[in-house]
Amino acid sequence: MVYSSSSATLTAVERKQGGVASGRWCGPVATFIVLFGAAWLALYIASLLLPFTRPGSVVIADAKFDRLVTSKMFGPQDRYRAMIFGHSKVLAGVRPRELDAAVGPGFRSYNLGLPGEVHFLPILEAALQAGNVPTHVMLTLAWDAKPTKDGFMDALRNDAAIATSVLPFRTLPRDAALFLFQNRHRLTEAVRDVAAQREAMLDDGGWYFIKSQSHYENDALPDDYALPTDHSSRVDVRTIPERSYTRERLEQLARQYGFQVLLIPVPFRTGEFAPAPATDGRLVTISEDPLIRVVGPDYFSYPPAFFADPSHMNPRGALAYTDDLARLLKASRVFD
């Protein structure tokens, strides 16, 4: 009986101690969760209220997704409705207003190139979902060769995407500090400049001059400019994968919405690669249903003076490339 009483007493004491320990553990954890949630919410709201502190590439991409493709892009007078996709070479290279004027009445185009991005399906699908349906989708870069859509394991391997999903404001402290330091003597003017550049890009149909990477007088590279990584004796042949998830999805959208797909030349700096082989101007058809065709050579070459940095054209170069693209489209009779 004595042993049983002691055992019962010990059990009661252990339960009491366990309850105390549990209470001590739950309190700090609950406090941490509340403080973490408050800090997360505060930083998230700050990121929404301070969009001008983001890098220019992010500001431009967000504006294209949030404003350009969600607004009404085409009117009943636009017989030919073109969307042009690619990375930052396209962003800085195609001037839709000048392209529309050069091609002629009834033609309307938009530059949907995104800085540092080769995947065009997300912004194309966003435009289609908003009711903006093109007659022609122009690609400077073909689709990738990935055979399947990204799955759960692909998402787990993408550390950057996970970090962005969990902490969408993760670059805010760095971006805000840089913005304040670089514009410490002109903060109000700098905020207005960001807004003005974003609106100018939207007004120009998606064209944007990437001036921030220009380090030469008059935003033009020297005539003898070259890089050790250039391949002046090698032709950069465009690869067009036969099978690809992106291609299958693009073809599905083309059939559903009735648009054609055109692969057009991308602009390169002279000396970056050897001149592309000349073409006779004919369209090369790689698919009949839906209609997918290659127009012209794989790329055009332009002197360094037409570039603001090794990759991106200056306004003068953009006018030259746009003019050449218009001539190519008219000569190919793709809109007849």
Structure overview:
By secondary structure, the chain is α/β, with parallel strands linked by helices. It folds into two domains: 48 residues; 247 residues, no CATH class. Helices cover 47% and strands 11% of the residues. It has eleven helices and eight strands. It has a six-stranded mixed β-sheet with strand order 2-1-3-4-7-6, covered by helices on one side. Strand 6 and strand 7 form a beta hairpin. Helix 4 runs parallel beside helix 11. It is globular and about 90 Å long. 26% of the residues are buried.
Report mean pLDDT, rounded to a whole number: 89
Whole-angstrom Rg: 27 Å
Strand content: 5-15%
Main sheet: strand order: 2-1-3-4-7-6
Kindly report how far apart the N and C termini lie. 105 Å
Q: What share of residues is helical?
A: 40-55%
Largest beta sheet, briefly?
A: 6 strands, mixed
Number of domains: 2
Structural class: alpha/beta
Number of strands: 8
**Element-level helix/strand string:** HHEHHEHEHHHHHEEEEEH
Give the number of helices.
11
Q: Ranges with pLDDT <50 over ≥5 residues?
A: none
Q: Note the overall shape.
A: globular
